[in-house]
Amino acid sequence: MKMLHFVLLLTATISSGMNFELDIESGAALVSYSNIRIPKSTGTLISFSDELKTDPAWFIRGRLTCFFNQRHSLSVLIAPLKLHASGSVGRDVVFEGVTFPANAELRTVYMFNSYRVSYQYHWTVSERLKFGLGVTAKIRDAAISIADTERFSEKTNIGFVPIVRFSGWWNFAGPMSLLLEGDALASPYGRAEDISLTVNGKVSRALSMKLGYRVLEGGSDVEEVYSFTWVNYIFGGLLYGF
Structure pTM? Predict the structure, then answer.
């Protein structure tokens, strides 16, 4: 009974200080570079950005955050991404065991869907300045494919990655604020960075609008896959608190 009473008391304490924020953003995703070699030792290094033409892609992503006890937050992010490229190169391209002949018209797809659960602890320096630090559990659902008129080859990967999460918020003028936030981690086998800078403006007590820039960069350098891509996001969005 004492344990049950403690759990109920703890739940009521957390719930009393709980509020939510829904963050939706959309815009254009533009590739700076995308260099692929699969597998690393026997595949052909090909640039989807320099040797082929990667089209700009429209995207949408959303995050639901729960803030509780003023200093803690939990969030869930859904961030799909799919990029298409096309063109030809003047040499044979070996990709995942399939050889595409020189000058064949190639069509490629780079898919990197990300699903994340994040925890942050927040420090309030003043009413106008706050910082956060925590950890993200990320599941990546990735696929890279190359096709021509006769052949098709694809490399897929689903994996779990722990990442450091951070944020900094500055209310610089009236209803206007600046938010720097991201997830980032590096190791000898690869790296991942998803970092954004946004200007937010309050429309009402519950609703804010935002404009921003995001960089998504990273990849893997292992025998199975050599792949590094840099994507620039230009976006707008809405934040709704409840």
Answer: 0.90
Q: Which domains does the chain have, with CATH numbers?
A: 20-241 (2.40.128.90)
* pLDDT tens-digit series, residues 3-46: 445 444 444 444 556 899 999 999 999 999 999 999 999 999 99
Q: What phi and psi, each to the nearest 5 degrees, are found at residue 199?
A: -105, 120
Q: Please give, one letter per residue, the 3-state secondary structure of the chain.
A: CHHHHHHHHHHHHHHHCEEEEEEEEEEEEEEEEEEEECCCCCCCCEECCCCCEECCEEEEEEEEEEEECCCEEEEEEEECCEEEEEECCCCCEEECCEEECCCCCEEEEEEEEEEEEEEEEEEEEECCEEEEEEEEEEEEEEEEEEECCCCEEEEEEEEEEEEEEEEEEEEEECCEEEEEEEEEEEECCEEEEEEEEEEEEECCCCEEEEEEEEEEEEEEECCCCEEEEEEEEEEEEEEEEC
